[in-house]
Amino acid sequence: MPNPDQHDNPAETSADPQTVWQADEIDKVSTLSCRTVAAIRAVDAEDATVPYEEPLAAWLAGDDWLGRIRQIKQASDQYHKGLINDVSLRCIAIDAAVLDACHGSAGIKQVVLLGAGMDTRPYRLEFPDVAWFEVDVPAMSDLKRRLIEQVPEPLRPCTLLRTRRLERVPLDLATSLDELLPLLIARGFDAHAPALCVMEGLVYYLSSDENRELFRQLPASPGSQALVTCIPAALKTMVNDPAVQEKMPHYRMIAPAWKTDLDEFRGTVGSRWTITQEVNLFDYAERSGRLLAVDKGIELDHRDVAERYLVMNAT
């Protein structure tokens, strides 16, 4: 276990997270996305009938976004008690896959999380012998650091690191991808040892060319793996349908940001990586005995539009 005093730089005083959020200068789409994801995870974890814990997510999301997601859950007849949002299900599935890669036969001892946002795995999952590297744009990385520093006293125990170390790597993948490996190495990353690269909710916001370059630059020592979530073509087509957007206006904001679907992504991984497993998250929910909230406004089979996660191996 990590040293019981090994907090992630807790501050002596706490502050209202809203003051931190209001002061940030991060791109608003990125900000709203990471806050929404954290709020969904936090609200799902509040349901005692759902076996899921996310003690820091509420603080990282902020009260205003928590309130919005709570209202949605309370008002929606398809998202009632005992159901879990697909965002939280995705997080749970990736949790299990990361644990398997680090504690299973692969025995990977360093994880690189790209587009880290408000992820909390170093504080929730037991990785006492794993070095954890979070990569995100500098403003987001700094914002998360400040939020963790200002966590209120009752949450201080939740800032105990469960990893051997946590390194934040401020980097804009869109403009400075060639700096990824040098920055990781400068923070203690072993370029010759196997690594697990995690990309949850990232690659479909990138173009095919950007994904192609990303997978060319990723650390790929023998034994390395990658975990990637991606949207199917049917979902991308659906959110761009004007009739669907009329019924569900929030898709108007999402649609322009989603650039790459799974079919397109498969052609971008290059010769250094092989996709060894594809998991449909709707199927994952059924197999794991979880009840997944579904949107009744979607007329397609929910299995067809469910996000997938991919297990990839370096070749």
From TrEMBL:
Record-linked SUPFAM superfamilies: S-adenosyl-L-methionine-dependent methyltransferases
Domain of life, source organism: Bacteria
Enzyme Commission designation: 2.1.1.-
Keyword annotations of the record: Methyltransferase, S-adenosyl-L-methionine, Transferase
Keyword Phosphoprotein: no
A Gene Ontology biological process term: methylation
Enzyme class: transferase
Pfam families tied to this protein: LCM
GO terms, molecular function: methyltransferase activity
Function as written in the Swiss-Prot or TrEMBL entry: Exhibits S-adenosyl-L-methionine-dependent methyltransferase activity.
NCBIfam families, A to Z: mthyl_TIGR00027
Similarity annotation: Belongs to the UPF0677 family.
Official protein name in the record: S-adenosyl-L-methionine-dependent methyltransferase
Lineage: Bacteria, Pseudomonadati, Pseudomonadota, Gammaproteobacteria, Chromatiales
